[in-house]
Design brief:
Blueprint: H1 6-14, H2 19-22, H3 27-33, H4 40-65, E1 93-95, E2 101-103, H5 108-122, H6 133-153, H7 165-178, H8 192-203, E3 224-225, E4 232-233, H9 237-240, H10 286-294, H11 314-329, H12 337-346, H13 348-356, H14 365-372, H15 379-391, H16 397-418, H17 433-446, E5 464-466, H18 473-479, E6 485-489, E7 494-498, E8 501-506, H19 514-524, H20 534-543, H21 556-569
Helix pairs in contact: 4-5, 6-8, 7-8, 11-12, 12-15, 15-19, 16-17, 20-21
């Protein structure tokens, strides 16, 4: 202790710590005596002194401890072995009858605790000495990790990847031999606590696995089809147990890996190849042309052959569809909007292949789709589907569309005056009911089509119909000559209908966005624009929906209308 400075000696003297007591101090004791970062070097110097003195003392007295029994105050303490010249240098390796050779984990702190224990053991003061919980956990964790790594690197690692119970038991015995302070009081099984902790740690280990794609290749598909009763047997029990699922198979259209899926709509027969022509809008857009290529004979969970299903396999999409169906099977079901949107995102490719398929007449398509996907009776889900089709990666797409619609309405009122279709004064609020009604009546004339509407049927009737007092909406829909989406407005309530099916109602404050709702259902249900308003809807498609139309698909009426519109807004 002569190498210590006066400040250190004064603190030790005040704490009644002599040279013999100093050897028993721990790191925590030194922090209590010399707290703060300013005493870091002083603590380090004292700790080095304690370490050197402990090792020198044990080297001098090690021969008297080797091979003898030291009987402290309790007779249950076993021998002071290890069987080497010094306890600190005890054998750390554990040799099994067959390779590999395991090693007990140790580090500087564990060695220091072990040296401190044997220093107390010589004086008979080791009874209450315990290894800290942190050090014990480190010892167990690193020993198990070392055993697993050594085993897997050995020749036996090709057959087994984890140590056996016999090896775990032998290692726990070796640990309590090397660290006697971890012994249990039971003389017959002093290693039981360490063995239990090691076994628990081994059970919690998880081997790293290679990342697999959504459809791991396992050879031929394990799916059996029955054309008689349309039952399906797969290795997914929850899919096959559904009594109302039907599998449609076309060997020309479905790949070997993606050869099964569930469908909620039974079909009596399935053609082998898709039809050469598909119904699209009069002016196919880029997104529409993509859906044209996807048009195949399919079910709601069966994408076409040339569609890359990147996020989920067909079977997983079938599970997603089943989950979605179960959410709406309960009476008065009101599923969480976020949950429904997430499932619709996962099942998008298979659903679009089903919607775009030409297996039913367009007049019957809305009813079939609403039967398979009742979620689309909610306007929010239809608008979200519009976003997926046109710009699936843009989470703010709907907000941007509404902003473009407001800007379009602001410009079109002056365009109507220039065309002498609208007469001022106008309402300052473009979202008001009066302005919206006037806009719906004027739009077909501002962007006219070459085809006249049906007899006794105005062009604006393809977009909106004003119900008079006492009119029955259902009766009107049955007599309506068009099957396109339409708004039915009675002055206070707005009904959204597709074909002869009333779908939902719009709040009064959303009436001004009724045109966007109609466009959403045109896209969601993959419907053809009525010829009498095809030019108008094509203009809205490009100017508001931001879905461009190929020049080769643009009609002369559309080109003329766009030329007049652009010449006006550029002035």
């Amino acid at each position: 202790m002569d190498s210590f400075d006066d400040s250190t000696l004064s603190v030790l003297e005040a704490a009644s710590v002599d040279e013999e007591a100093l050897k028993g101090l721990s790191r925590d004791d030194l922090k209590d005596l010399f707290p703060g970062p300013g005493n870091f070097l002083r603590r380090k110097k004292i700790w080095e002194f304690i370490s050197q003195n402990c090792e020198n003392t044990m080297d001098q007295d090690g021969s008297s401890c080797s091979g003898c029994e030291i009987m402290p105050s309790t007779s249950s303490m076993p021998q002071c072995l290890p069987q080497t010249s010094t306890p600190v240098s005890a054998e750390k390796t554990m040799k099994m009858p067959d390779p590999p050779e395991y090693v007990v984990y140790t580090d500087s702190e564990l060695d220091m605790v072990r040296s401190e224990y044997f220093a107390l053991l010589r004086n008979g003061k080791e009874k209450n000495f315990k290894m800290s919980k942190e050090l014990c956990c480190r010892l167990i964790r690193n020993t198990i990790t070392s055993m697993v790594a050594i085993l897997r690197a050995s020749p036996m690692g090709k057959e087994v990847t984890y140590p056996s119970k016999l090896e775990m038991r032998a290692m726990s015995q070796k640990i309590v031999e090397y660290y006697p302070m971890l012994r249990d009081s039971d003389a017959n099984m002093p290693y039981l606590t360490i063995y239990t902790k090691m076994y628990k740690r081994l059970q919690n280990m998880r081997s790293p696995r290679k990342r697999q794609c959504s459809i791991p290749k396992r050879g031929a598909a394990k799916t059996l089809f029955s054309a008689d009763n349309q039952n399906i047997e797969t290795d997914f029990t929850d899919t096959s147990s559904c009594s109302d699922t039907v599998v449609l198979e076309s060997s020309d259209d479905i790949s070997e890996d993606n050869s099964s899926a569930a469908s909620p709509l039974p079909a009596p027969s399935v053609p082998k190849k898709p039809k050469s022509s598909t119904k699209t809008s009069p002016l196919p857009s880029k997104s529409a042309s993509c859906s044209t290529h996807r048009t195949m004979v399919a079910s709601p969970t069966m994408p076409a052959n040339n569609v890359d299903v990147g996020q989920d396999s067909l079977k997983m999409q079938a599970r997603h569809y089943k989950t979605l169906s179960n959410m709406y099977n309960k009476p008065n079901a009101k599923p969480n909007q976020n949950d429904v949107a997430q499932i619709l995102d996962l099942e998008f490719e298979a659903r679009r292949a089903f919607v775009d398929a030409d297996i039913t007449r367009e007049e019957d398509r809305p009813a079939k789709i609403f039967e398979a996907y009742p979620c689309f009776k909610d306007v929010r889900n239809a608008m979200d589907e519009l976003r997926r089709i046109v710009d699936g990666t843009n989470s703010r797409y709907i907000e941007e569309v509404k902003g473009r619609w407001t800007e379009f309405c602001t410009k079109v009122q002056f365009y109507g005056v220039w065309k002498k279709v609208l007469k001022p004064p106008f309402s300052l609020d473009v979202h008001s009911v009066d302005f919206t009604l006037a806009l719906f009546n004027a739009l077909p004339s501002l962007f006219p089509s070459t085809v006249s509407p049906p007899k006794n049927f105005a062009s604006c009737e393809a977009l909106i119909h004003i119900l008079k007092s006492g009119d029955d909406p259902t009766l009107y829909l049955k007599k309506r000559p068009l099957s396109s989406p339409v708004l039915l407005f009675d002055g206070s309530t707005t009904i959204v209908a597709v074909g002869n099916v009333p779908v939902t109602t719009l709040p009064q404050e959303d009436f001004s966005e009724g045109m966007l709702v109609l466009m959403a259902y045109y896209y969601t249900l993959h419907l053809t624009y009525p010829k009498c308003v095809a030019t108008l809807l094509s203009v809205i498609q490009t100017e508001v929906i931001a879905d461009t139309i190929h020049d080769k698909d643009a009609t002369s009426a559309y080109k003329k209308a766009m030329a007049d519109w652009r010449s006006f807004i550029e002035k």
